[in-house]
Design goal:
This protein has about 500 residues and is of the alpha/beta class. The protein folds into three domains: about 90 residues, Arc Repressor Mutant, subunit A; about 220 residues, Type I PLP-dependent aspartate aminotransferase-like (Major domain) (Aspartate Aminotransferase, domain 2, 3-Layer(aba) Sandwich), CATH 3.40.640; about 100 residues, Aspartate Aminotransferase, domain 1, CATH 3.90.1150. Helices cover about 45% and strands about 10% of the residues. It has 18 helices and 13 strands. Helix 10 packs parallel to helix 11, helix 10 crosses helix 14 and helix 17 packs across helix 18. The longest helix has 28 residues.
Amino acid sequence: MAKRTTAAHLAALSLDPSASAPLYRQLYFAIREAILAGRIQPGTRLPSTRTLARDLDLSRNTAVAAYEQLLAEGYLDGRVGAGSYVSKVLPEALLHARRSPTSSPENPAAEPKLSRRGAMLARLQSAQGLPPKAFSLGLPELAGFPFEDWARLLARRWRRPPSDFLVGVDPRGYRPLREALAHYLGAARAVSCDPDQILIVSGAQQALDLVARALIDPGDRVWVEEPGFSGTWSALLAAGAALTPVPLDEEGISVDKGRTLAPDARLICVSPSHQYPLGTTMTLRRRLELLDWAAAADAFVLEDDYDSEYRYAGRPLAAMQGLDEKGRIIYVGSFSKVMFPGLRIGYMVAPKALIEPFLAIRRLVDSHPSSIAQAALADFIADGYLTSHIRRMRSLYAERQAILLDFATSILGDRITLRPDDAGMHLVGYLPPNTDDAALSRRAATHDVVVPPLSAFYRGPAQHKGLLFGYAGVADKEIGRAVARLDAAFQDD
């Protein structure tokens, strides 16, 4: 009876000749699963390879290969002249890895016990890695990047790489890259630094993480802009910081409100050249006020200069870091928006007193980004490719902003208010105060349009409702179609 039952089980196996996995692997997995699920009991004799091949309409070699794999892994025992039997001691039992009856898709195993910090980090949400769609935030124009030039620079560096490129470079980063950056930032952003103050990191998010690890103890107060960037919040929360949302006015972050809410703050996080997400530019008076307060309070200022290269009226504004005479500002930037996000190279310019602590912590986390990519990037900057690319993209993005404004006005009318911005890669579309912008954003997603709700950028009650439109990476001809799909989302209400 057992033999007939087993033969029936195996004869009923379903294999797919069109699948990418070879038939012998499909057969191996099917028999293995039947054994582990208990449908074929330990000690049971299996049909001969000839019989199984005939029942399943397979070549005998396929059946032999599957049995041999099961024998090699200990699922079967082979007996001379007596056939193949299911092992009485399965590999999972030996390894204490056999599936528990309480663990199944219908009854999952208990969640692992995480540390309080681990549980908090697991709850933090991130949009990174999502496929790009119309109006995704932070996405540059990728088709316009000079990939042929970039590939040539990479190939040149790979052709005969020095041995230190293959072993590792200075954890500060490749020195010629730091030298090129010091020159570029000084000319383009009025950043005052020498190459030894620059630390090359794997994107701006790692810089935020290093700053938080070095300067924040659990419970320390940190000012964050309200509304602000959730990526900044996540890095700070991971370090145990107590975030203090500080409102903005027409001049930028309110130092008076911050002083009242958290006079003992250890760190202030701002985006003064083009505030994220509202686009406010911090006035000179407010910048000097913030620097004076930070120096008096023995606090540091993290300046996130995320997209200020893209200014469409006049030259890019000078960074606040150039005003710092007391070593209070940590300046952070990356190449994700000026080149492409997958490059994963960013930088931080730190006061000299903080460089060694940052390096010590960095060595424990991630010694350096790709040496070859750093060298190619140094060439890309020094040979003028970066400046040329930014100039082309600045013109392109200004045109796309204008196209978005035209379509929004003609299609969406007075249901949403978009105004031109002299800088950046996104616009805020303001909605009436009683609008559920989160619900509208979800409806838009069903129409293949990504427009995050402005309310999601507030830690407290949202003072404004709206949607964010990242226009830089959307092709001209797609902008109108995407706005039309958003119009359909409005009508779904």
